Amino acid sequence: MATTASKTTQDFVPIREIRDGVVILKDGSMRALVLASSLNFALKSADEQNAIILQFQNFLNSLDFSVQIFVQSKKLDIRPYIALLEERYKEQVTELMKIQTREYVEFIKTFVENSNIMTKSFFIVVPYAPPALTASRNPISNFMNKNKTASEEKITANAEFDEYRSQLEQRVGVVEQGLVRCGIRVAELGTEEVVELYYKIFNPGETEKPIQIN
What we know:
Helix content: 40-55%
Oligomer: single chain
Shape: extended
Radius of gyration: 24 Å
C-alpha cells in the first residue's frame, strides 16, 4: 500500500525566500509589506472625518492593482514594562516612593490580568507578479539557457530581481503617498522586520519586540 510522505511546516508556507525586504512566493510572485499607523477617527471633527474619507476614497480609486490590508491583533505583553518598574523600585531612596512604586506595579498587574488588552498593528501587502517567462516555449531560448554558465544565470537572475523589485517599489510608493495624504504614517518593512513579522504569525505563543514607526 502506498504511503504518503510526511510534510514539514515549510511545505505549507508559500514563501520561497525573503530578499532585500521583498517576500518571494513559491509561484514567483513578490510581496512588499508596509506598516501603517493607526488613526483615532472618532476624535476628529466632522469636517476632518469627511476629509479623511474623501482622501481614502481617492487613494483606493488611484490604485490599478490589488492590495491586502492585514490587521494583527495580539494580547498586550506587559512584562517588559513591569521589569522596568521593578528596576525603578530598586532605585527609590525613600520608603514612601518605594511603597507608591510597589502599589503601582501591583495595580498594573491586576488591571492587565482582569482586562483583555489588545494591541493592533496594521499592514498593507503590496503584490507584484512578474511577467510570465516564455523561455520554456521557445526552443532557441532553451538552447541558449542550457549553454549558460552558473555565474551567467546568477547575474541574469539578479538583474531580473532588481527589475521586478523596481516595479514593486513603484507600487509601494503609490500606496505610501495615498496613505500619507490620509494622515497615516507609513514605513516599508526591511528583511529583518519581515522575518520577525512572519515569525510572530507562525509562532503566536512567542513574545517578540514590537515593530515601531519613528
